[in-house]
Fold:
Amino acid sequence: MLGPVILAASRSDRMRRLVSAAPVTKPVVERFIAGETVDDVVPVVKHLADRGLEVSLDVVGEDITTPEQSTAARDAYLRLIDHLEGLGLGERAEMSVKLTLFGQALPGGHELALANVRPVVEAAARIGTTVTLDAEDHTTLDSMFAIHEELRKDFPQTGCVIQAYLFRTEADARRLAANGSRVRIVKGAYKETASVAYQDKAEIDKAYVRILKILMEGEGYPMIGSHDPRLIAITQELARRVGRKLDDYEFQMLYGIRGEEQTRLAAEGHRVRVYTAYGTDWYGYFMRRLAEKPANLRFFARSMITKG
Ligand SMILES: Cc1cc2nc3c(=O)[nH]c(=O)nc-3n(C[C@H](O)[C@H](O)[C@H](O)COP(=O)(O)OP(=O)(O)OC[C@H]3O[C@@H](n4cnc5c(N)ncnc54)[C@H](O)[C@@H]3O)c2cc1C
Structure:
């Protein structure tokens, strides 16, 4: 029951100010956020690469209020790509992008977000890598899929994310699988109502398996975004059944979660990508990680009480 309460708090400005300013927050945040600057994140990328892992880098932030913030976000990604160019990591380091950070929710936001994301996709292609568009709350998705389709005309490797908890997602998966797209499937991390999304964990897991099957049997490149051991085993079984080789799909997990499992799968020959978030505007991302696992919240609350 705690999850929805935390997700509601993730949209509260008052909570944002309170949690962001509390000094005791830092050690808990550091488990999930790989630093505040490009200089912080580069050694993390190198360390993950040394462990045989790939990365998807996310400059944290969302729900901005001015066009200037959206261009600043674009420039932060362009600076990151410039840094990565020198490391020679090629496609081992891709970018994940939230379109609301690029202005999608502002007036005229669809065009603004497309104009901001295009140079990032171009710069990523220049250094031999690509961009995946994250899925945010369901009201943003028609615009996200339209931007994805537009970008794929010039950059077919551009990926997108679909969320198993939404009723619409099986149809989206069919369309994307037939188009040969790179698609990350996740359970879904936002607060959605029963009119658009499954609420029951078992229902979400069942939908995830149905969608996984569509993607694995389709023409595209499935990216399995989950830490759930059952879904990882089902993916491996489906891959065997449909004859997908180890480089025909990949597992993706979040930085700070099940690190040993990430290394174990990579050692077995799987491609494993670690979604690595960094930056100063970490509040929304951090609160979604707390909501996913109540034990994280208990740990966080304990450190607030004992040290605060
Ligand atoms: C690479 C990646 C990208 C993502 N991108 C998006 C996106 O674009 N849009 C979106 O809505 N959601 C996104 N998510 C989040 C996703 O929707 C889920 O909320 C999240 O992955 C938890 O679901 P799970 O599949 O790991 O299964 P769960 O059943 O939630 O977790 C399975 C097990 O993993 C571990 N675990 C999971 N989460 C945590 C945590 N926070 N802290 C500690 N342990 C944990 C626990 O051991 C748990 O028992 C992404 C997830 C991943 C892995």
